[in-house]
Recover the amino acids of this structure.
């Protein structure tokens, strides 16, 4: 009988091995970029606030800055009168005109909204009392000096960009990993070379969709993809393309040829060029996943099936850089699994319940565009029952 | 007393008015781009599959293509023998060697995995029977001709890119909207001009963070941002910058100066250049939101406070282009609102419950980086109680 994957490693063990290598490997893989370009990149370091924000007490409304005690008891029927001054401090019985965002004058501790004031020549009638710090944004109210604004490993959002620029940070250190992408398979035709699908069909070919998909997945993970196109199932050609891609990048991702068929050369080639660290993981889909090292660079050998390669990418690459949000929702029907195997089940959220997507093989791509996320069934669990609350990783 | 926002419009009404204008405005605002550049853009049209996928029955495993009926009853103790042929069809008693992805030969309807076969010279021993279509990916199993692969208004994911390339689609039509971004306020300093935060503090200035934040928000929405920097609260300067930005872009977004203070010129300027469609919405935060038209282009006047402007952007721009995922989770504590007003409450998901973020003013930026999403409390609801299930829009 044919060759088989020898000893499958558990998902937990495989994850630990790969993530340990990531930790070591990424030590010097950063780049400093302008904050404006940082959207979607992953922070290489913790960033603390260098200052309090606001930096000074600010008026939160248009109106008049006052000493709150000078306004106590003021009302429409019993207005109080304050002298209008124009200086950087006020004294008892005085007020200063301010706009939203203005720095508060010295001694002032509140703002009376202009809707409750009437300005006359040199004085202001106050129709409503204010308590101390009413309508004032106080020093440090938004952010305290030393507050953690962005965590190492966190994806940078528009909100991070807002707060980092507010405290005067102009550049950020982000992970900078160049990723070479190679697809293998005699049956593949690169998209730009497709003349008609009819022609592909007649020649029993399919589009090399994995290169484009991985390009997008890598980009979405905050890393830098480069496509090397497809290579046929020929040991020497695969070897020379991997060599080239490894030299030109930090890591390489391949798809296809990672099983143990007669034409599955990838694992042997990685072993010749460097060394396979692991091959074959107790997961479904994605079992033939391989991971190795060549010249201190990393190589991930993924399946040719898009769904399997997506899952492998998700578990061993994306989830290192960008954590998914997790929620807990009830299952709409049973899902079965096998003891000893970790299952990754695509799901849809329907009426706020988890609907596992019925799919047959790992090749059913359309299940991915329909999925809202996935559920991981650990190896020591035989499945989940209808109504049970399960953790969902959200796309 | 001072001017006030006259008549506030309800959130539902405002949304309807703005979205109607978007619908009309976007009629010709598209661009055709290569599929590889489409990640994160928003599709301008429905895309149906032009073909069945797979285009032909394919082997789903390495092994031997057979007529299933020829293998019935085969087992380790009772192997059956088939003649090994090398042609595009097989007949009774024959088999053909295939690899994962190979086109199935004519008359074959199943694959016996090679692990259950032993190849000898000219024939193959079969150790396991297969049923019809076992280990075969059938025509149209992934996608049927005419299936909807991508919806108009849907954000393009790596999975869409995978499936679209698989069916041979090389380019996609996406929304193409150029967005000019202007911040107004005497107190603002553009980030690149900041020498030290100490200097800003001494001059009672703050960083123009809104331009950078909006740049990122616009980009994340699949649109094309362009920053015009800050302009002081001077009616003529604001007017000439808006004029320039309107000419050079499809829409303009401003921040600041949209209230009714003495220095709030934006609304008047929009009215002079074109017309304000609405100003003042019953939402919190974000009440002073304004929306207008100049030369058949759209202008959105947002608040100066980052949290308020983020919410306004979310409700009236982002949510038109990219729908948030919605889930339902129980509240960890009461949230109060006011009848007649729509509240947008930032929340965190903790232990799979919804924790409303305690924040004081609309200026508390840090609440945004901590938030996992938000809850909308409609105008006819006074609030929600602890334990109640609420709809969460996920960031």
């Amino acid at each position: 009988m044919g060759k088989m994957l020898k000893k499958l490693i558990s998902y937990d063990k495989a994850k630990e091995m790969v993530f340990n290598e990531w930790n070591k490997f990424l030590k010097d893989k950063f780049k400093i970029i302008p904050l404006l370009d940082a959207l979607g990149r992953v922070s290489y370091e913790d960033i603390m606030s260098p200052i309090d924000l606001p930096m000074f007490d600010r008026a939160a409304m248009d109106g008049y800055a006052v000493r709150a005690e000078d306004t106590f008891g003021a009302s429409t029927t019993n207005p109080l009168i304050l002298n209008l001054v124009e200086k950087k401090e006020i004294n008892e019985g005085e007020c200063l005109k301010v706009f939203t965002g203005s720095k508060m004058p010295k001694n002032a501790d509140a703002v009376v909204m202009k809707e409750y004031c009437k300005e006359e020549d040199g004085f202001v009638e106050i129709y409503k009392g204010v308590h101390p710090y009413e309508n004032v944004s106080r020093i440090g109210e938004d952010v305290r000096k030393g507050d953690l604004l962005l965590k190492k490993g966190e994806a940078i959002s528009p909100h991070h960009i807002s707060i980092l620029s507010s405290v005067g940070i102009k550049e950020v250190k982000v992970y900078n990993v160049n990723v070479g992408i190679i697809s293998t398979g005699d049956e593949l035709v690169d998209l730009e070379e497709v003349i008609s699908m009819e022609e592909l069909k007649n020649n029993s070919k399919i589009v090399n969709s994995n290169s484009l998909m991985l390009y997008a997945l890598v980009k979405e993970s905050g890393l830098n993809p480069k496509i090397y196109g497809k290579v046929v199932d020929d040991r020497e050609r695969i070897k020379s393309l991997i060599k080239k891609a490894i030299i030109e990048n930090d890591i390489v991702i391949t798809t296809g040829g990672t099983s143990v068929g007669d034409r599955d050369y990838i694992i042997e080639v990685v072993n010749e060029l460097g060394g396979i660290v692991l091959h074959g993981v107790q997961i479904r889909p994605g079992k033939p996943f391989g991971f190795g090292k060549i010249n201190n660079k990393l190589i991930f050998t993924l399946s040719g099936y898009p769904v399997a390669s997506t899952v492998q990418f998700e578990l061993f690459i994306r989830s290192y850089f960008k954590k998914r949000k997790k929620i807990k929702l009830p299952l709409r029907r049973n899902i079965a699994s096998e003891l000893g195997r970790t299952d990754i089940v695509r799901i849809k959220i329907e009426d706020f319940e988890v609907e596992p997507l019925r799919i047959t093989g790992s090749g059913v791509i359309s299940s991915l565009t329909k999925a809202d996320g996935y559920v991981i069934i650990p190896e020591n669990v035989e499945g989940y029952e209808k109504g049970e609350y399960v953790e969902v990783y959200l796309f």
Summary: Chain B is about 20% helix and 30% strand. Residues 202 and 321 of chain B are 42 Å apart (CA to CA).
